[in-house]
Design goal:
GO molecular function, one term: metal ion binding
Domain Fe2OG dioxygenase: 193-293
Number of helices: 9
CATH class: Mainly Beta
Largest sheet: 8 strands, mixed
Strand order of the largest sheet: 1-2-10-7-12-5-4-3
Pfam families: 2OG-FeII_Oxy, DIOX_N
CATH architecture: Sandwich
Shape: globular
CATH superfamily: B-lactam Antibiotic, Isopenicillin N Synthase, Chain
InterPro entries: DIOX_N, IPNS-like_FE2OG_OXY, IPNS-like_sf, Oxoglu/Fe-dep_dioxygenase_dom, Plant_2OG-oxidoreductases
Family: Belongs to the iron/ascorbate-dependent oxidoreductase family.
Bound molecules: N-oxalylglycine, nickel (II) ion
């Protein structure tokens, strides 16, 4: 059982100031008085794939991120997933939560945790976040007995949610491929068998939001991320040298292009750099569903978009390096550029 602290326990201590390990260096601190022109993050209506394809191409080129509506996932499933996530963090006693503690010595291990990066280096700044990570695909990785047992529909809903997100992710990878003039299956074939993780992130209120980050600046390292959030703002996207707040839209799903799609599309589409900020008054919840290649997959730009600008990489090596060096924006991807 891991003994690392949870942010929730710090908050229970009612400290007037955040512990020093959570204080970001001045250049990484958020400017909470500026939230940019958030309204312009694109929203793509998926009810017609013909018009969606073009809108997705524009959104991927300009933003690496977009909301989708009319996505076919039942809205009550999004709502139930959010409320079950919140219930785990807010209603279960700590003793119960710690029964699901993740293994903090291995990357992205399943369960309840707080530290994203490995190791106990004193110089890493910690995120103001607790999370629960579920392994949901391929089916051989899915073991609901690793997930919370309360409320009684928790395990069933996580399973259904994973199934729906995977279908949507596959459809989007198809439209993204086609938006580049590639066959529908191109990106999915380059990814291979899809590994899916569902991470529920819980950001407790923070006494000094101006000094901390809920989640440090990064791009997701897999292929595509589908994210829902509650009605508390906090997710920000980096675009044109500015941090823009992503407005919460309860029925929409936010799509984030991740690093392997940037490599596969040879940089035609860039992964979205993002972070989460905290606030002093309200806890915030998000559910991110990651779709990744297998650790043994070799990822390289598709031949139709040659000459390649990125070196081929074994996905597992990319992930290990990400976890040991830290994301620091997009430095792991930059290291693959010719
Ligand atoms: C993530 C992530 C953002 C959020 O889990 O990778 O970027 O809003 N989450 O919680
Ligand atoms: Ni992310």
């Amino acid at each position: 059982m891991e003994t690392a602290s949870r942010v929730e326990l710090i908050v229970k201590g009612n400290l007037p100031e955040v512990p020093s390990q959570y204080i970001q260096p001045p250049e990484a601190r958020p400017n909470l008085h500026y939230s940019g022109d958030a309204a312009s993050i694109p929203t793509v209506d998926l009810s017609s794939s013909d018009s969606a394809r073009e809108a997705i191409g524009d959104a991927c080129r300009d933003w690496g991120a977009f909301h989708v509506i009319n996505h076919g996932v039942p809205i009550h499933l999004l709502d139930r997933m959010r409320s079950l996530g919140l219930s785990f963090f807010q209603d279960s006693p700590m003793e119960e939560k710690l029964r699901y503690a993740c293994d903090s010595t291995s990357a992205a291990s399943e369960g309840y945790g707080s530290r994203m990066l490995l190791g106990a280096k004193d110089d890493v700044v910690l995120d103001w976040r607790d999370y629960f990570d579920h392994h949901t695909f391929p089916p051989s990785r899915r073991n609901p007995s690793h997930w919370p047992i309360h409320p009684s529909d928790y395990r069933q809903v996580v399973g259904e949610y994973g199934d729906e997100m995977k279908k949507l992710a596959q459809m989007l990878l198809g439209l993204i491929s086609e938006s580049l003039g590639l066959p529908c299956s191109s990106i999915e074939e380059a990814v291979g068998e899809i590994y899916q993780n569902i991470t529920v992130s819980y950001y407790p209120p923070c006494p000094q939001p101006e000094l901390t980050l809920g989640l440090q600046s990064h791009s997701d390292f897999g292929a595509i991320t589908l994210l829902i959030q509650d009605d508390v703002e906090g997710l920000q996207l980096y675009k044109d040298a500015q941090w823009l707040t992503v407005p919460p839209i309860s029925d929409a799903i936010l799509i984030l292009i991740a690093d392997q799609t940037e490599i596969i599309t040879n940089g035609r589409y860039k992964s979205a750099q993002h972070r989460a900020v905290t606030n002093a008054n309200r806890a915030r919840l998000s559910v991110a569903t990651f779709h990744d290649p297998s650790k043994t997959a070799r990822i390289a730009p598709v031949s139709q978009l040659s000459p390649p600008s990125y070196k081929e990489v074994v996905y597992g090596q990319y992930v290990s390096s990400w976890y040991s060096k830290g994301p620091e924006g997009k430095r792991n991807l930059d290291a693959l550029l010719y």
